[in-house]
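Um, can you check?
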Amino acid sequence: EEERRRPRKNQSSSQAEVNREEEEEAGRVEEARRRAGRTVRWLENLPRQAARVSMRGMGLGYADAVVTAEHVKRGGRSLEEMDLKNNDLDLSSMQVLLPALGGCSGLKGLALGDNPIF
């Protein structure tokens, strides 16, 4: 009986950790939405099933990467090509964007040149 309770305790602490991480992520997204209002409005005006998106030279930074990643997760699955050249996207920005873009099974082209990635 005692042994059966331990996994439940571990399971509930694991669930608490997941909940905490989800809350932190939601907070990061909300802060990014506040800071990247221009990008949020731009993304909201895109057609829902846009296949080719160019955000070239928009001066995108980390907050923009966060809101773009959220947009892709929510509705950008039909994305085939994305141009992110000539922005201010660094390694931390890419660590947010690339996992979201990984969910786009039809993605054939991704342009990242002229960003301070490394």
Observations:
- The radius of gyration is 18 Å.
